[in-house]
Amino acid sequence: MKDQRAQQEIEYVLEPGAQVVVSEGIATFTGTFPDEESMREAEQTARSIKSVKSVVNKATVAHKVQTAVDSNEPTQ
């Protein structure tokens, strides 16, 4: 049985690309979080809800492409 209220509370902090389903006291995350901090915040939110007994995280964290900036180049 889905717990709509708990699910809505968690969805409030979710970033686009990440999903949660709360069923029988288990919050299951899927999809992709933009970073580790967003994933931790969602997990903490889930754990803070009384009706959530456990958290299962099947989501991933997006790999950000970092570009090197050469600080020796003059700016114009």
TrEMBL record:
Domain named Pterin-binding: residues: 1-76
Domain BON: 1-63
Pfam families named among the record's database cross-references: BON
The name this protein goes by in its record: BON domain-containing protein
Source organism phylogeny: Bacteria, Pseudomonadati, Bacteroidota, Sphingobacteriia, Sphingobacteriales
